[in-house]
Amino acid sequence: FVALTKAQREEWEQKAAPVLGAGVIEPDRIDELVRVTEHEPLVLRDVLNVAPTTSDSITYTRLQSYTRAAAPVAKGAQKPEAAMALDTVTVPVKTHAVWIPAHENDLADLPRLANMIDTELLYDLRKLEEEEVLYGDGTGEHFRGILSDPGVQPARAEANDTLLDIIRRAITDVRRAGYEPNAVVIDPIDWEEIELLKGTDNRYVWAVIRDTLGPRIWSIAVVETPAAEANRGDATEERNLIVGDWMRGATLWVRSAAAISMGWINDQFIRNQRTILAEQRAAFGVKRPLAFRKHQTQAPVPAGG
């Protein structure tokens, strides 16, 4: 070992670390396109009756009412006469579509981009479908949704009822109408309210029962979805819960399943652009309105109102 002088030691201690310029360290590149916000789950098809159709409309006959008259009859007496009313319902097939332009160079240089665009467009269609099934107002090309069908009645409610009480009353109403409720469609905010209900002893009053299909309430499945909230652009959106026999009460008829196609519009050909289109054709009908009961959990407040 050789002792350093003070000057040598100071010179050694003052040596600066090397400076690394930009780009010297290569970043790890993740082979993924990341979506900042996640899609909402699409679950209504899981409980709905979905059937194919080969026409541009569906017509069915519906028994509107039947008046009972059966009674014991004495010998030689006139037999009682029943009465019934039928009507015919026609549901037109509607077209749902959405498109986006894309540059051909981008599609060629970033192959994953095409898959992301297809995924987003198809989700856009399915999200619209859920909104239409619940809130479509039946005007123009809109479905007549469950909540706007005049035959779907509100659930019974008594003073001081909680959502837990109202759902149980709705189940009774549906059963008394001759149907078997199989699910309650509810917004996550309203389901949270049910799960957090506490009694006067500050203990939770509802033990959530789960099976392989998810949570259940009063022995029927809970379908927790943000689609239970309207998407009309209001300052405060309307929210509803719906108890029903979903398989018998309504049907979604699919004429053409959601599909992606590509083409040119206007001058895209000479601009190296393409139009990517997602489209489906479907019809929706509430065949048995009494198979459902609805309850508004939040009233809408129109934007600017």
Report on this model:
By secondary structure, this protein is an alpha+beta fold. The chain contains 6 helices and 13 strands. 21% of the residues lie in helices and 31% in strands. Strand 8 and strand 9 form a beta hairpin. The mean pLDDT is 90.
Helix-strand layout with pairing:
Blueprint lengths: L5 H8 L35 E4 L4 E11 L15 E10 L1 E10 H6 L1 H25 L17 E2 L8 H14 L6 E4 L1 H8 L13 E3 L2 E4 L2 E5 L14 E6 L1 H4 E14 L9 E14 L5 E7 L7
Parallel strand pairs: 1-11, 5-13, 6-9
Antiparallel strand pairs: 2-3, 4-12, 6-10, 7-8, 8-9, 10-13, 11-12
Read across the widest sheet, the strand sequence of neighbours is: 5-13-10-6-9-8-7
Number of beta strands? 13
Strand fraction:
25-35%
By DSSP (H or I, 4+ residues per run), the number of helices equals 6
Low-confidence stretches: none
State the distance separating the first and last CA atoms: 86 Å
The gross shape turns out to be elongated
Proportion of helical residues: 10-25%
Query: What integer value in Å does the Rg equal?
Result: 30 Å
In terms of structural class, how would the helical and strand content be classed? alpha+beta
Q: Topology as H/E string?
A: HEEEEHHEHEHEEEEHEEE
Mean pLDDT: 90
- Main beta sheet strand tally, sense and closure: 7 strands, mixed
Oligomer state equals single chain
Keywords for this structure?
elongated; four-stranded mixed beta sheet; single chain; 305 residues; 13 strands; seven-stranded mixed beta sheet; 21% helix; alpha+beta
